[in-house]
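Practice problem 4.
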């Protein structure tokens, strides 16, 4: 891996995969006839989302050497994401993800990541630590902590940042990748201790700081030394908190098609807002609308909006405004 010539705006680290999403809704997986192929994987989607806002973005991940590996490289380039940190694993296959669509809130996922996904074979010694230290936003995920050597690589990357702004940890807890929530907790806390911004839903926050009302969860996360916390509440909107303040943002109404990419769209928009110097409340409004935009479409990476797209959706919403406290 070669170092970036100038700092990336957004550098993410974690999952990549091939999303095979059905063209039919409310149909069981065994009965679906047709699927569409898209680029996927949480960290990859966040990088794509950031690039859609004109940010210089890259992702640190790994693919297999079979046909889907070259597809990932080509798709990233098409989306304007630098693929120099996408490594290859000669033994493992690029992961595939299937899902069912049962709007508005049921989208079961089937991961094909056995015996292991290449992105969990990222090693600390392979990382370009200067690029990680210099990135204006560095983004890690909880899934990257679930197995070695990715765990040591993720924590090593975070430690190399020395809690530089903006270091974002996405709690991203997928139960199928862990033996239990208790196993994940110390590693999540380790990562959060190196981050300045945390994002996740209530269930993910509970893994790290225990079950509680969103306001209490946010307070517990801030006590870890974070500067900014986003608790995603699904149809109930978003709670954003910072030392000395907190606010609740109502959701942006949308007809849901596939909710699986909404969180990653939120993440890319969050990065954009941080870099733009927006207030926490404005970031939360914009990111919530970006998530809603993608939830109204089938794809994840392919559906990521531009700032104009999000602005148009906000203008159509009865709650459209950009607060700047």
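Answer key:
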């Amino acid at each position: 891996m070669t170092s970036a010539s100038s700092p990336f705006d957004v550098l993410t680290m974690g999952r990549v995969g091939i999303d095979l999403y059905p063209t039919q809704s409310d149909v069981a997986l065994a009965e679906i006839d047709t699927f569409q192929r898209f680029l996927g994987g949480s960290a990859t989607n966040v990088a794509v989302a950031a690039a859609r806002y004109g940010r210089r973005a890259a992702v640190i991940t790994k693919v297999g050497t079979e046909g889907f590996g070259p597809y990932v490289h080509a798709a990233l380039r098409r989306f304007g994401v630098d693929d120099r940190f996408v490594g290859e694993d000669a033994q493992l296959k690029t992961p595939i993800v299937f899902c069912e669509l049962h709007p508005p809130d049921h989208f079961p996922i089937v991961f094909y990541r056995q015996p292991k996904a290449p992105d969990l074979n990222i090693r600390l010694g392979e990382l370009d630590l200067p690029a990680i230290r210099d990135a204006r936003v560095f983004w890690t995920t909880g899934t990257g902590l679930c197995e070695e050597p990715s765990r040591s690589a993720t924590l090593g990357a975070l430690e190399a940042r020395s809690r530089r702004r903006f270091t974002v940890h996405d709690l991203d807890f997928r139960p199928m990748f862990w033996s239990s929530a208790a196993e994940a907790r110390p590693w999540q806390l380790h990562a959060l201790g190196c981050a300045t911004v945390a994002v996740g839903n209530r269930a993910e926050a509970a893994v790290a700081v225990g079950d509680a009302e969103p306001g209490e969860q946010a307070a517990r996360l801030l006590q870890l030394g974070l500067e900014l916390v986003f608790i995603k509440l699904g149809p109930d909107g978003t709670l954003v908190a910072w030392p000395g303040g907190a606010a609740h943002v109502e959701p942006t109404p949308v007809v849901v098609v596939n909710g699986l990419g909404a969180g990653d769209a939120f993440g890319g928009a969050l990065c954009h807002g941080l870099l733009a110097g927006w207030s926490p409340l404005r970031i939360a409004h914009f990111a919530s609308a970006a998530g809603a935009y993608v939830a109204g479409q089938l794809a994840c990476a392919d559906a990521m909006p531009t700032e104009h797209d999000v602005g148009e959706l906000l203008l159509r919403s009865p709650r459209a405004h950009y607060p700047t406290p």
